Amino acid sequence: MAFFSKLKNRLFKSSSKLEQGLDAIVEDGGEEETLTPEPQAAPETPEPAAEPVPQAPVPVQPPTQTPQAAPEAQTPETKGILGRLFTRGETQTVTRRVLDDDMIEQLEELLIASDMGVDTALRVTSNMAEGRFGKKLSTDEIKQMLADEVTRVMEPVAKPLPLYSKRPQVVLVVGVNGSGKTTTIGKLASQFKSAGKKVVIAAGDTFRAAAVEQLQVWGDRAGVPVLTAPEGSDPASLAFDAMTRAQEDGADLLMIDTAGRLQNRADLMEELAKIVRVIRKKDETAPHNTLLVLDATTGQNALNQVEVFRNISDVSGLVMTKLDGTAKGGVLVALADKFGLPIHAIGVGEQIDDLAPFDPKDFAKALTGLESR
What Å distances lie between residue 246 and 72, 226, 255, 263, CA to CA? Predict the structure, then answer.
């Protein structure tokens, strides 16, 4: 729940466009209705008061019933008066709007603007309208419907990073530069180390000194060895040395960082292919996981990145970072709907506990603004 609160606050600290948009859609063309929590109290009040009246002519048989009937008649009447007094103070208005074609079109446009993508937005709104078309709905009801639909889409892909008995388990981490790859590796290594796993990191992005230095900082913080090579050296050679070191140390996990220079896909493809060929000389089943790290602030471009990296490498799962920097977290729904790849974790900050397993219900609540007031 602590991470959910952080996700909810940070995801909507920068902007709450989706939540505000849902409010605006219902208010546009909606009608206010007055809510009176106890309207039934008035007809109920005379009924108990009327009961003693027919009993009054026959008090002879049960003399003890007469004193009991009187307080019973007074009690509901008193409650009814108090109920009416408090109801006047608690009277609220709620805006409801008929779910019609115009409203559905507005919902579609809002979801597309939230980076959910055209196909996913159409599918989600169609499912929301099923069985509810023509009914009057409030903002809270719309939000709950949307949250339920987002949860339904995302539950099948919410899976933790699988751990195998194979030692070392090789995790190849891919993604464009600036996506949060290096930080994600550091956080995962630290979390696995805290869970009692023996971890080795290979700084395979040998073309960026900053990435190597950042990994070394995380390695020192977590007490995890980070293997490096001179700037510009062969990443595959480093990966081979890292496999040897991990086997000698009896490590449970070997996490290999990689470069992400998409401007030259041919070079990147060859580089990743070479890393895989080399580590398979040590273990023909490696890599056991290929983790793609995506930056949520890139919006729909994240879909393109998945396409590219699926062609370059056998991506087995996703991590979405920087959800605290965007109001367009809908791209995660589009990714789940289009590719069906496991989403292992999401990140909402720079601290070690700002990366957590993906929970579809918590994410759906944060995305739609449920419980955010």
Answer: 80, 11, 10, 32
Is the four-CA dihedral 117, 118, 123, 128 of positive or negative sign? positive
Nearest 5°: phi and psi at 59? -85, 0
Residue with the two structure tokens 């493809």: 269
Q: Judge if pTM exceeds 0.90.
A: no
Reported as a single tens digit per residue, the pLDDT across 339-368 is 999 999 998 877 777 899 999 999 999 888
**Which residues in the chain are classed under CATH 3.40.50.300?**
169-364
User: Do residues 172 and 287 make contact, with C-beta atoms less than 8 angstroms apart?
Assistant: yes
Cα angle 38-44-47, degrees, rounded to a multiple of 5: 170
Q: Residue 289 forms beta bridges with which residues? A: 171
| DSSP code per residue over 337-367 | HHH---EEEEE-SSSGGGEEE--HHHHHHHH
Structure tokens at 215: 């990994």
CB contact set of 162 (below 8 Å; sequence gap of 6+): 289
Per-residue model confidence as pLDDT tens digits over 214-249: 999 989 988 999 999 999 999 999 999 999 999 999
pLDDT digits (tens, 9 = 90+) for 111-158: 999 899 999 999 999 999 999 999 999 999 999 999 999 999 999 999
Looking at domain 169-364, its CATH superfamily turns out to be: P-loop containing nucleotide triphosphate hydrolases (3.40.50.300)
Q: Which residues fall within 8 angstroms of residue 212, CB to CB, at 6 or more apart?
A: 203, 205, 206, 226, 228, 231
Rg over alpha carbons for the chain, rounded to the nearest Å, is 30
Contact 231, 148 (CB under 8 A): no
The total of other beta-carbon atoms located within 10 Å of residue 165's CB is: 6
Rounded CA gap, 292 and 358, in Å? 15
Tell me which residue of 52, 50, 49, 44 sits closest to 84, measured CA to CA. Answer: 44
Write the single-letter amino acid at 21.
G
